[in-house]
Automatic annotation (TrEMBL):
It comes from Thermomonospora echinospora. Belongs to the ABC transporter superfamily. This is ABC-2 type transport system ATP-binding protein. Gene3D superfamilies: P-loop containing nucleotide triphosphate hydrolases (3.40.50.300). Keywords: ATP-binding, Nucleotide-binding, Transport. Coiled coil: none annotated. One of its GO terms (molecular function) is ATP hydrolysis activity. Residues 4-234 form the ABC transporter domain.
Length: 339
């Protein structure tokens, strides 16, 4: 059963249509909602929480109707907003206990749950310090803790990696993955970076200008390519020449050789060449696509669409609004992190 389902969902603000006839179903798991700034991610989350009435269409969360059952949805769903207005003078413990009490937990359970949750998000040591002295990463963790404290079945995380440095980003993404795998809580996490969701999410929904661009399992984006990665300790160039002479399409990639698979005999040719040249083979493996490659920018000039020819991607030009390998839409070119 889908945890989120929308049907023809449309949201019009004066002068802008934030969501345009959006129909999508999301199964349990860790799901990424990707789109450039202004694509409609936060608007969708607010509608799903029952906080913003849609102009047209329907939506349900955990089988509850967003138009009629908002309070029930908010009991069962945690929400980490994109921006914060955390009180500077109280500690993380005080704040998260307060949020647990607001969710209806009795005082003792609220304190216990707050302590557990703060430990899970990595804020245990600093939990009695006033939030005003926290770094951006710590503030993001406080927001995450308050979203989890009432033990929701599903959490909406709106741009949780915003403002974090690469190490902080990686830690946050690991934490999000663990929320899904170890705690069994389904996650809808938004990002404007495609690449960072590849190792975090099971599924991604990509929206652009309020329209659905793609909804697909991450695995389907990252299917095996028809290329082998070959690494030898030394003698990369000699091996490359030998394989090219044997009729294989070979190109260097840093320390590696990339070899197009031309049938099962490709493996035999590589093995034999390595033996004949007396090289040490470190690895020979199928290269997997990265999610960003699906949206690689076509180089300028005619006839240059570069969407890789694998099963998950329909042939043809890059979809409209997809402008860079890391970012979807016109919101600015920025390389995706991760992958
Ligand atoms: N209350 C509002 N009134 C008018 N326009 C709005 C309102 N809320 C959102 N919008 C507009 O709707 C569009 C979608 O905004 P939304 O915040 O949902 O995008 P987003 O994908 O979450 O982007 P970001 O990551 O920048 O928050 C934008 O053009 C935005 O300006």
């Amino acid at each position: 059963m889908p945890i989120i389902a929308t049907q023809g969902l449309t949201m019009r603000f004066p002068g802008v249509t934030a969501l345009h006839d959006l129909t999508v179903a999301v199964e349990p798991g860790v799901v990424g909602l990707v789109g450039a700034n202004g694509a409609g991610k936060s608007t969708l989350i607010k509608i799903l929480l029952g906080l913003l009435p849609a102009t047209a269409g329907q939506a349900s969360v955990l089988d509850l109707d967003v138009a009629r059952q908002g309070p029930l949805i908010r009991e069962r769903v945690g929400y980490m907003p994109e921006y914060d207005c955390l009180p500077p003078d109280v500690s993380a413990t005080e704040f998260v206990v307060h949020m647990a009490r607001m969710s209806g937990l009795p005082p003792t359970s609220a304190r216990e749950r707050a302590a557990d949750t703060l430990r899970h998000v990595g804020l245990y040591e600093e939990r009695y310090r006033p939030i005003g002295g926290y770094s951006t990463g710590m503030r993001q963790r406080v927001k995450l803790a308050q979203a989890l404290v009432h033990d929701p079945r599903l959490v909406f995380l709106d741009e949780p990696t915003n403002g974090l440095d690469p190490a902080g980003r990686d830690e946050m993404l690991d934490l999000i993955r663990r929320i899904g795998t170890e705690f069994g809580i389904s996650v809808l996490v938004t990002s404007h970076l495609l690449g960072e969701l590849e190792r975090t999410c099971d599924h991604v929904v990509i929206i652009d200008g309020g329209r659905l661009l793609r909804s697909q399992a991450v695995e389907a984006f990252t299917t095996d390519s028809g290329t082998l990665t070959v690494e030898v300790e030394e003698g990369r160039d000699a091996l490359g020449h030998r394989l090219a002479a044997a009729g294989l399409a070979v190109r260097p990639d840093g320390r590696l050789l990339l070899v197009d698979v031309a049938g099962e005999h490709t493996y035999d040719l590589i093995r034999d060449a390595v033996v004949e040249l007396d090289l040490s083979l470190i690895r020979m493996e199928r290269r997997r696509h990265h999610i960003e490659e699906v949206f690689a920018t076509p180089p300028p000039g005619p006839g240059t669409a570069t969407v890789p020819p694998h099963a998950a991607v329909p042939p043809g030009p890059v979809p409209p609004g997809v402008v860079g390998p890391g970012v979807v839409g016109p919101g600015g070119i920025e390389r995706g992190h991760g992958a």
